[in-house]
Amino acid sequence: MLGEGILKGLKETARNALGSFVSEERLTTVEYPEQRIPLPEASRNFPFLVYDGTDWESGLRCVACQICEKECPPKCIYIDKSKDKKPDAVGKQQFYPARFDIDISVCMSCQICVEVCPFEAIKMDTEFELSTDDRFGELLLDRKELAKSNEYYHQVHPTEATEVDDRLARERAAAEAKAKAAAAAAAAKAAAPAGATTAAAAAAKPAAPAVGTPAAKPATAVPANTSAVPASEIPAGETAKNPTGTPTKAATAPPAEQNAVPHAEAPRAPKFDAAKPDAAKPDAAKPDAAKPDVLKAETRKEGDAS
Ligand code: SF4
Ligand code: SF4
Fold first, then answer.
1. 43 CA from centroid of ligand 1 (Å)
2. In whole angstroms, how far apart are CA 105 and each of 74, 75, 115, 170, 195?
3. Same domain, 64 and 163
4. What is the tally of structural domains in the chain?
5. Which residue of 66, 67, 114 sits with most ligand 2 atoms within 8 Å of its CB, as the best mutation to test the pocket?
6. In terms of residue numbers, what domain contains 235?
7. How far is the CA of 296 from the centre of ligand 2 (A)?
8. How far is the CA of 112 from the centre of ligand 1 (A)?
9. Confidence of residue 103 (pLDDT cuts 50, 70, 90)
10. Is the pLDDT of residue 305 over 50?
11. How many CA atoms lie within 13 A of 74 on its CB side?
12. Which residue's alpha carbon is at the smallest distance from atom 6 of ligand 1?
């Protein structure tokens, strides 16, 4: 029937208008601000910071990770991370926000900061009576103004706050159990016999390569010593020395059969002239132990490097 919807609407309006004189349930308006309608649990306005315990400063859950600051679309969160750490509500050393400001004149109540926070540290408030004539003085809230207790969180969002508390309790219990297991494992390891530990470590360690094995050294391991005095200029009976007084390789190089480094095949090895005085030639009678340690060390190092 034409106009049936209009008649139904008028009937409902008349029922509420007349019924409000006899039943408060029929009242659809209240005398705000003296009277207020309870806000739905899902309502939200601007963010606040949750703290545990009674001291807002030490109980803040925020660890200044700055994820919310990065994710906030209008960039109205300003955080300065602390240089030091202090214990949080459960005694764990954490960074904290030395500064945490939110410009609520810019905030668009999108709740993204709440969604991205890994520490359940920031939640949406239901407070909406924030009008002021001081745009910059009153609408830039600092961390003290933003801090509200976990009890307050339970008042404004009871279901959500209970779920968060349960989850945090489970996570803390799991972390404590893990720490206890790690401590028990460390104690058991410390109590194990030292010999068994050493033997196990030795078995696990790969065999060290043979050090100083002459046959393993390449032919190019001994470069020409540019500072050496030419053998031809050394008088017979003297030992060739470089400017620092250290015997040169040319003067002290042992014969090929005593030193497996094949000097004869080395492209840059010092050459000896059979016609020159014997003092510059290697002394075949000298034992290996007579070789200068410097030469041994250099030869080993160069061989390892190649
Ligand atoms: S509710 Fe949205 S706009 Fe407001 S501070 Fe959080 S992320 Fe930024
Ligand atoms: S409120 Fe949460 S996301 Fe933002 S800095 Fe603190 S811990 Fe990080």
1. 15
2. 11, 12, 21, 37, 69
3. yes
4. 2
5. 67
6. 214-305
7. 61
8. 6
9. very high
10. no
11. 11
12. 113
